[in-house]
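Practice problem: DNA replication complex GINS protein PSF2
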Amino acid sequence: MALPPPLRTSVTPQELELIASEQLVEILPLITMEKTAFISGAYGPLRPPAKCRIPLWMAVNLKVKKKCHIIPPDWLNVEFLQERLSRETSYPEFSQMPFRFAEIAKAILDVAPDDIQNADKVRSLLKDLREARQAKSREGLAKLDHSELSLPNSCSMEINELRPFFIHAMGVLTQLSREGEDRAAAQP
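Answer key — C-alpha cells:
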C-alpha cells in the first residue's frame, strides 16, 4: 500500500507509541500468572503484591482488564515535571527527558490516570512542557546553520516532527549546491 506524500518522510505518532510500548514499566499485579514467553522475551511470573517489570504494551493490556496497577516512572510526577518546565523556560538548551517520554506518558495517562497522583496536573504540565520545547524548536529552526546540526536532549516525537522539514531543507540545499557547481563549471 502506498502512503500519502505527507507520511512518506515521517513516522506517525501512533507508530511511535507502538515503538515505545516495548519500554519496560513496573506494575503491581492483581493476579497470579506464571512466566510467559513472547517474541520480545519472557515476562513474569506475576505474584501479588510483588512488583514486576513488563513491557508497556502488556501493562496497558492488563490495566484495561483491571488485572494490575501501573507504577508510573520516576519522571511522571508533578515535582519532576515542574522542575523540567522551569528549566525549559529558563535555559536555551532542551532539558534532559527520557527519549520516549511523550509516548509513554500518553499511554499511561490514557489507561491509568487513577495510578498517577494529580493526573490532571501531570497532563497539564506535560502539555506546557511540550509547548515550551516546540517553541525552542521553532526558535532553533530560525537560527539554523547549514554546516552543523545538533539536537541534544530532543525526544523521539520532536525529532519526528522536524524530520519532514529537514528532509525538504536538505533537498533544497543540495539542489542549490549543485546549481552553484554547475554555474562555476560553466564559467571560463
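Discussion: Residues 41 and 55 are 10 Å apart (CA to CA). Students who identified this feature from the C-alpha cells alone can consider the problem solved.
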